[in-house]
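Pipeline run #58 for the internal structure catalog. This entry was flagged by the ingest filter as a single-chain record with no existing model, so it goes straight to prediction. Upstream metadata was stripped on purpose; only the residue string is passed forward. Reviewer on rotation: M.T. Logging verbosity set to normal.
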Amino acid sequence: MCSSDLFILGYLETPAGIDTVDTNGVVLATDRLQTNGLVSLGSFYSSATTIDADGIAIGTSFTDALNLYAVNNADLGNISTSMGSALFVDAGGSVSLQQAQIGDAGVYGDLTIRAGTDIDVTFDSVAGNIDFDAGGTISTRGSYAQGSLTFAAGGNVQFDTIGAGNDVDLTSLAGSITGVNLQSNGSAFITSPQTVSISGLIQADGSVNISGDLGIDYGSIIAGPSVLLTSTGGSVAGGSIDASGPLQIAGLTGINLGELRAGAVTLTSSSGPISVQFADLFGSFTANSAGAFSIGDLVTSLGDVTINAASVSGGGIAGGNVDVTAVGNISLQGATASGNAKFNTSLGAFAADGLDVQG
């Protein structure tokens, strides 16, 4: 069935001998379009509509609620829905989406995409929630939700910039997660059995919780109540972290951090070194390292400072009670304790350019 203009006033199911609906004109549908073949629509304007086909290709559409079911692939151009209206896509193959404007400010309209293989989005702005679930890769250049944003992929998750008015939840079952910038007015949860690498800024009003089994690499983090970074099989490396509460980082093969501003900080590496450039904390500081512990500039804490490592070196430390234990050498530019100070080395030597103990 081919036409330059196709108007559907109700339900249309193509006969068995006609397996394609193809038009470059305007399609007006009020109910349902169903075919055993391909639905290819150049421009598409309708009220609430459902399309059920072997494959779906749409150039431009403006609709109320739009539900798309494709046995194979769905290739979508510029899709817009009215206030409070949602877009739902379910494809056995891949889904590609050039641009989507779903709902309107203050009136929710959700974007939900289910794909048997990959989801590839150029840009989408959604007044409600974004929910992507793919058997393969999820890739987006820009996705913004006034509600929550959830990506669940069997393979990799890739993004340039994503943002949400509520929580952001990114999960890969078997791949890595890579991105540039992430912003959440809620909390951010990122989980991968491989690596997590976000080169720009991760900013959340709530907590930031990242698990990358084979390694975590970040640019900078600004967070609310807490930050938890865990790599059970790799290292954790990145720039500055600014949090209003506690910071906990565990990296099996090592930890390498820039500037830290937070509450209590706990750093743990069971088989590698730990390096901190600078820390200004209103809680305690605890570092446990199977390798060397090094300070680039200064670690200062309103609470206690406790360090256990193979060796300790670098800049200065300042805190309440200071307790530093090393197998090898302890060499610091200075140490200040408002309480007690202990420096223990079993096989090395202790040296500090300046030592001020008030306890």
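catalog note: The chain is about 0% helix and 65% strand.
catalog note: Confidence is low (pLDDT under 50) at residues 1-20.
status: ready for reviewer M.T.
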